[in-house]
């Protein structure tokens, strides 16, 4: 069984942040609704009695805040669903990798790589005697189509639905690997064998990327690719341990 060194954290932090913000906004809504009603009614009376609309204006402004915060809660709810789906996908891919790869493999999840002012967030990085494997996981459904050099692909969730534009994960993982390679060179680490893999979790998802030079795979296909891949050279246990230690220190 592969050794898991770090767990997913950025999506968990984002989910926690959204939940916290939603709870605060829900409490605000109750206050804003009461104030909006009170100020509007009082303002209407003042308008009739004195002809001034200041209080009425405050009531209407409070109503605007109420509507804005309601819309923000709805937006948070939609984002929470997306984040939760991504989190489930990354956890499931980690489980399959850990159970199917042997203990020569190390798994670092949600790894933040920094080089200069640039950063890259790698979903899963597998360190093995045959090289490094940077995995970009997508828990997307429907049909995914595009070309390797396009900035965005299309996602058609259901037949007949209008396609959505989604970021190209191949370009994403290429950028991650390029930055990781630069960071290793900057640290004086000789490790030329770094490979990109894109993983689609759902077995029902179909994809059409005819010119892909980077593997686009299911989780178990990714396991076989990593386990059977032959890099340019075999890395010693000491080299693997040294790299793992550097990654853990730099995260």
Summarize the structure.
The chain has about 250 residues and is an alpha/beta fold.
What does this structure look like?
By secondary structure, the protein is of the alpha/beta class. The protein has a domain of 148 residues: Trna Endonuclease, Chain: A, domain 1. Helices cover 52% and strands 23% of the residues. It contains 5 helices and 10 strands; from the N terminus they run E-H-H-E-E-E-E-E-E-H-E-E-E-H-H. Strands 1-2-3-4-8-10 form a 6-stranded mixed β-sheet. The chain has a 4-stranded mixed β-sheet with strand order 7-6-5-9. Helix 1 runs antiparallel to helix 2. The protein is elongated and about 90 Å long.
Provide the spatial order of strands within the biggest beta sheet. 1-2-3-4-8-10
- Helix percentage range: 40-55%
Average pLDDT taken over every residue: 88
List low-pLDDT spans: none
Shape: elongated
Proper CATH architecture of the domain at 103-250: 3-Layer(aba) Sandwich
SS field, number of helical segments: 5
Major sheet size, sense and barrel closure: 6 strands, mixed
The CATH class label of the domain at 103-250 is: Alpha Beta
How many strands?
10
- CATH fold label of the domain at 103-250: Trna Endonuclease, Chain: A, domain 1
H/E element string? EHHEEEEEEHEEEHH
Q: Could you say which structural class the secondary elements and strand pairing correspond to? A: alpha/beta
Classify the beta-strand content into a percent band: 15-25%
Radius of gyration: 25 Å
Distance between the termini: 23 Å
């Amino acid at each position: 069984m592969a050794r898991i060194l770090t767990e997913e954290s950025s999506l968990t932090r984002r989910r926690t942040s959204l939940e916290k913000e939603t709870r605060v906004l829900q409490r605000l809504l109750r206050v804003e609704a009461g104030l909006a009603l009170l100020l509007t009614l009082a303002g209407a009376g003042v308008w009739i009695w004195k002809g001034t609309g200041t209080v009425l204006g405050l009531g209407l402004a409070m109503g605007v805040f109420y509507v804005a915060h309601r819309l923000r809660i709805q937006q948070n709810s939609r984002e929470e669903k997306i984040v939760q789906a991504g989190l489930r996908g990354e956890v499931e891919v980690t489980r399959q990798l850990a159970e199917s790869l042997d203990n020569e493999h190390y798994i670092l999840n949600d790894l933040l790589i920094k080089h200069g002012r640039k950063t890259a967030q790698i979903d899963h990085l597998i360190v093995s005697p045959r090289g490094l494997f940077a995995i970009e996981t997508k828990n997307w459904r429907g049909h995914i189509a595009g070309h390797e050099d396009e900035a965005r692909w299309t996602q058609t969730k259901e037949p007949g639905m209008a396609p959505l534009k989604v970021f190209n994960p191949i370009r994403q993982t290429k950028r991650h690997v390029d930055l990781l390679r630069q960071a290793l060179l900057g640290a004086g680490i000789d490790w030329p064998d770094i490979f990109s893999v894109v993983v689609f979790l759902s077995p029902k998802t179909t994809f059409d990327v005819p010119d892909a030079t980077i593997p686009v795979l299911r989780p178990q296909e990714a396991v076989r690719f990593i386990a059977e891949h032959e890099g340019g050279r075999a890395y010693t246990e000491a080299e693997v341990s040294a790299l793992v230690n550097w990654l853990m220190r730099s995260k």
